[in-house]
Amino acid sequence: MKNINPTTTSAWEKLNEHYNNARFFDMKNLFAQDQSRAQAFTIAWEDFMVDFSKNIITQETKNLLTDLANEVSLKEAIEDYFEGEKINKTEDRSVLHTALRADKDEQITVEGKNIVPEIFQVKKKISVFCDAIISGERKGFSGKAITDVVNIGIGGSDLGPVMVTEALKYYKNHLNIHFISNVDGDHVFEIVKNLNPETTIFVVVSKSFTTQETLINATKVRYWFLNKTQLESVSGHFVAVSSNISKVQEFGISSEDVFPMWDWVGGRFSLWSAVGLTISLSIGFSNFEKLLAGAKSMDDHFRQTEFEKNIPVQMALISIWYNNFFKTETEAIIPYTQYLHRFPAYLQQAVMESNGKSVDRNGEKVSYETGNIIWGEPGTNSQHAFFQLIHQGTKVIPADFIGFINPLHGDQDQHDILMANFFAQTEALLSGKTSKEVGEELKKSVVSQAFLIPFKVFEGNKPTTSILIDKLTPNSLGKLVALYEHKIFVQGVIWNIFSFDQWGVELGKELAGNILKHLNVINSNELQKSTASLVDHYKKRR
After folding, report:
1. Is 169 a catalytic site residue?
2. Distance separating alpha carbons of residues 135 and 145, to the nearest angstrom
C-alpha cells in the first residue's frame, strides 16, 4: 500500500475549508432544504438498509471524502488486502481473514501456494468433529455424551466466539457453552465448579500455544480435570486450536484434535477460522457456514461496489469526518437487541487494537487523530443509562443504531415497542426540543417556567447512523461483523497506519513477568517507586 500522509492531500485541505461551514450545519435545515435527503443518503443492499441522512454531511461532504479515499489509493489498497499482499509490514504478513470465507474454487496465493484447499480441509475437520460431539457419537471417557463445552482463550480467541455464540443463542443446540479468558483464578473456579469432567470438553485456543493467560488457565483446568480422572483421559476431553503442534502434544492433546491456524489471520479477526470451533459446536456447522457466507457477501459488496454506494467505505469516511474534523474521538454502538449485548465489547478490540496507533507506515509520529474510542450497550437499557450524556452533554458522540425488523420469537407487539424506541431516539437526537416547545409543555407546571426551561431544552443536531436488518440470522450477523472489519481497514488506509499489528499489548505482558518475580522476594527496590510501593503493600496484606 502507498504511504500517503492524508493531511498532505488536496482533499484534506478542502475538507478543512468545508468544515469551517459544516460545523454550523443544522440537520433539520438540511432536511427542510432537500425533501429527498433521506433517500439520497440511504444505501439499501440485500437485507440491509443503512441510513446516513441523520449525519452532519451534505453531498459536498461525501464528494470530498470520496476524493480523499481516491487520493490515498483506497481502491488499490482494497485489492492488496484481498489478494494477500503483505500489508502487515511490521510482521511481514498477509492479512487474509477474508480468505476464510472464500468460495471453494477461488485461488488466493500466499508465498506461491493457493491456501483455499487447506482452508476447506480445516473446515471439513471442524464439521466432522462438531457433528460427532453434537450427535453424541463422540463421548467422554466414561461413555457419557458431551453436555458442556469450555472455550479457553483470550482477546480475539475469546471475544469473537463469545460475541457470536451470544448473538446466535436463538440458534443454539443442547450443548452448554462456557468461556474462560481472564487469568483471574476466581473466574476459572466459577466456571468449572459445577461442571462434570465426564461430560465436558475443553477447547484451548492459542495460535502459538504460549499465550500466558490461556496456558495458565488451561493448565489450571487440566489440574482440576486430573483430580477427578486419569491422565489418559486428557486427550479425549481437550482439543486445541493452534499452529504449535509440539507444544499442544506436550500438554497431552492428541495431534488428531488440533485444529490449525495460520499467521495471516490476526486474533481479533479469527472467529471465521478454527477459532470458531466453539461457535460451530454451539450452533452447528451448517449455521457456521451461513455466518461465513454472510461475511463473504459483504466482502464482495465492499470489493466491487463504487464508493458512493459502498456501506463500509461510507461508514469509515463519515467516522473520519467526525474524528478528524469535529474532533469527536468516541463512537457509540447501540444494538437494539439483547442478543448483541457483547457486540460493542467485540468492536472495542477490533477497532481500538487495530487503529490505536500513533506512528504512520513510514515510522513517523502522526500529527493527526487516529483511532476511535468505541463503547456502547444495547437499547433500551442504554437509554436509561448514558443517553443523558449523548442528549444533553457537552460532547458530540456519533452513534450507530443497529436494529432488526423481525423478532426471532415472533412477539411482534413487544418488538414494535423496542423499535419505536430505536426510531424515537434517533429522531430526538436529530430534532431536540426548543425552549418554545418546552415552554408550551410547562404551562401547567407548579415550578417556575423560566427556571425549568434551560434544563429541559435539547439542542438536537446529534449525529446517528441507522442500520436496519431484516432479521438476526447467522448470515446477517456475518455481514454485520464483516462490515465493521472493512470499516476498520478503510480508516487504517486513510490514516496511513498499520492496522493489523498490536505491539501495544506487549510491553505490559513483559513487565508482568518481571513483577511476578518480585511478588516472591523480600526486596522490590528494582521496581519503579510507585509500583514498588503497591507491590510491597500487596505482599504484606495477602
Report:
1. no
2. 9
Q: What angle do CA 220, 223, 227 make, to 5 degrees?
A: 145
Q: Report the C-alpha gap between 485 and 313 in whole angstroms.
A: 11
| Closest alpha carbon to 335 in 389, 298, 376, 370 | 376
Q: 3-class SS at 127?
A: helix
What cell was used for 194? 459445577
- Mean pLDDT score across all residues of the chain: 95
Taking the alpha carbons at both ends of the chain, their separation in whole angstroms is 52
Q: Which of 124, 309, 384, 517 is catalytic?
A: 384
Q: In the annotation, is 509 catalytic?
A: yes
The CB density around residue 247, as the number of other CB atoms within 10 Å, is 16
pLDDT digits 0-9 by tens, 271-308: 999 999 999 999 999 999 999 999 999 999 999 999 99
The secondary structure of 430-461, three-state, reads HHCECHHHHHHHHHHCCCCHHHHHHHHCECCC
Catalytic residue among 28, 395, 509, 537: 509
Q: How far is CA 95 from CA 283, 299, 318, 399, in A?
A: 27, 14, 24, 28
Annotated active-site residue 137? The verdict is no
Give me the pLDDT at residue 78, please.
Answer: 98
